[in-house]
Predict the structure.
Amino acid sequence: MTKVLFITANPNDENRSFSMAVGKAFIETYKETNPTDEIVTLDLFKEDIPNIDADVFSGWEKLRAGQQIDALSTEELAKVGRLNEILDQFMSTDKMIFVTPMWNFSFPSVVKAYIDAVAVPGKTFRYTETGAIGLLHGKKVLHIQARGDFYSEGHLADEELGDRYLKHIMNFMGITEYEGLFIEGHAKMPNKAEEIKAAGIEGAKQLARNF
């Protein structure tokens, strides 16, 4: 059975967010096309995603030193345990769909926290004498992102940092099958906002049938 993670990072729902509206259209069409796939939705604004802090580092150090799990403090155990759950879920997934807005040329900070939880040496990549190599192969990622201006090409292309980073870190972990679906220009051209949204929704439905 194909496992799919539908990962959203927006405090607004599909009625207030272009990216969420397009993401909803995508996943609904995907479900219709792939009724036997297992789909799990993660709302990163509601998930418990521990930051990599002093407790996490000390917990990891104890485990690497060969100490038993009961040697960890309550805080270390809770955070390290939760990070392991997030990592195991990510590694066991075949397809991931990230749905984000563009915030300050990137994406909400919860996305970075999630990436920090899954980009783990020895698990999703490893270091070698010739450099790091990714360990996740045969997986597929789609990034759906709404942007108020036009960043896919033109003079603002170099200012887009979110999708470029997400694609880079996924490639770094060995996931090279990566696609982007972008809804652009609705803030710059508010008179065409609904038209832009509708085009994004239609594009999502078409993409979902073959993803």
